Amino acid sequence: MKKNIKNLKKKLKIYNPKIKEECGVFGISNSTDASTLTALGLHALQHRGQEGCGIVSYDGKNYHSEKRFGLVGDNFNKEKVLKKLPGEYAIGHNRYSTTGGTTLRNVQPFFADTNAGGIVVAHNGNLTNAITLREKLVEGGAIFYSTSDTETIIQLIAKSKRERKIDKIIDALFQIQGAYALVFLTQNTLIGVRDPFGIRPLVIGKLNKSYIFASETCALDIIGAKFVREVENGEIVCIENNELKSIKPFPAKKQRSCVFEYIYFARPDSILNGKCAYEYRKDFGKELAKEADIDADLIVPVPDSGNAAAIGYSQHVGRNFDLGIIRNHYVGRTFIEPVQKIRSLGVKLKLNTNKSTIKNKKIVLIDDSLVRGTTCHKIVKMLYDSGAKEVHVRIASPEIKFPDFYGIDTPTKKELLAANKNNNEICEYINAKSLKFLSIDGMYRAMGFEKRNNAYPQLTDHYFTGDYPVKPIDNLGDDKVTQLSLLSTSSNN
């Protein structure tokens, strides 16, 4: 029986038509329940990565590590596991792989011994010069265990000739490029770092005498912690002896947060720049309605990604909102694809139409983004097959024309529908009656700006514009080898 289950699991594939999420990080200081609270924080951040999870704790003498494949709730839900993680300091990580493969060797947090003592790191983001740095380190005699770009950071810290660990970290930070939110644990010190542009998110919380770092505020809410503030772009925050110390070693830059945190990645109840992500998404829908409304009977969201935008759209036009599509939440993020016949049913395993609601109706179908278009095509077909009279698609973000290099698993440019087809061609491909995207300036207006500042954009919006704040040094092209190691990623030992 166990063998059959094992074989079945090998057939599981991730089903997610969207751009894949980043990773989630969490760290806590000075708490007798450090590992338990870290597990709860990671549970709240589960949407940011489902491939693997790990926790490292420190008990005043030794570091303790547990890393597992799969979801937090399946791995850190038993007392006997958490007892293996004693100590008042802990950091944790949810993984979705962008650099490196799906292998236990790449599950974070990473630990290393240095001449200044042990150090642990959890990383959300992606380094745009990791391969270049790795090649230089290997030439200098460094030995790598994983294929993750995060290990490059560890290697740079270990190689630094500086005496104090914080100086070793700063030394490493001046060599890396890209988007990153880092949480370090070194003895009784917790350190949070955000990249100079603040592309990847990191917040500070407090629970009694404990300070917390987390990717989103929803991780603070689950443990009853108070939100203190965001880590500023280019800031290093050190928590030692229950005191918070701020260091800003980089030349000052204006913040450019990732716009997709607002559009899709962040959990709807997380606070971004003083406002719930849910409210931003409703405002995207309102701006979309101002720009591209059409007379219809019903506003229908693609669940759950289009819910907030559809509500905002509906509220602005004063037209009925209804759940014309029902999501099966019990499927989770995986489903069995043993044969092609079953594989073709992928969307229907997760979504199904509410036939009595949409029959003979002119429908405005709302989603937050459109990537490859394959799923949208299937959903439109489902609606027509269920009796919809017309289906007009409205997307609450601009056209995605450029890939990401900052920790988001986007398709290559040749796979991005809007990079290769104009609006009419896309509309024909998805078989909609009409198709409209939110304009770039409309997106900025929804976020409280008059328009996009083309001279210095307020956000990292390269998905739509091709304006990359950090140029990708390791952008080797579609035909070049980008794997960080020759060791097979299927090897866990």
Overview of this protein structure:
- With about 500 residues, the chain is an alpha+beta fold.
- The protein folds into two domains: about 10-255, Aminohydrolase, N-terminal nucleophile (Ntn) domain (Glutamine Phosphoribosylpyrophosphate, subunit 1, domain 1); about 280-450, Rossmann fold.
- Give the overall average pLDDT: 88
CATH topology of the largest domain, anyone? Glutamine Phosphoribosylpyrophosphate, subunit 1, domain 1
CATH superfamily of the largest domain: Aminohydrolase, N-terminal nucleophile (Ntn) domain
Q: Nearest-angstrom radius of gyration?
A: 23 Å
Could you give a short description of this structure?
With 493 residues, the chain is of the alpha+beta class.
SSE blueprint and pairings:
Elements: H1 2-10, E1 12-14, E2 24-28, H2 34-44, E3 52-58, E4 63-69, H3 72-75, H4 79-82, E5 89-95, E6 110-114, E7 117-127, H5 130-139, H6 150-159, H7 165-173, E8 178-186, E9 189-194, E10 203-207, E11 210-214, H8 218-222, E12 226-230, E13 236-240, E14 243-247, E15 257-258, H9 259-265, E16 271-272, E17 275-276, H10 277-292, E18 298-301, H11 307-317, E19 325-327, E20 334-336, H12 340-343, H13 346-350, E21 351-353, H14 355-358, E22 362-367, H15 374-385, E23 390-395, H16 417-420, H17 423-430, E24 434-437, H18 440-446, E25 459-460, H19 462-465
Parallel strand pairs: 15-25, 18-22, 22-23, 23-24
Antiparallel strand pairs: 1-20, 2-5, 2-11, 3-4, 3-5, 6-7, 7-8, 8-9, 9-13, 10-11, 10-12, 13-14, 16-17, 19-21
Helix pairs in contact: 5-6, 6-7, 9-10, 10-11, 10-18
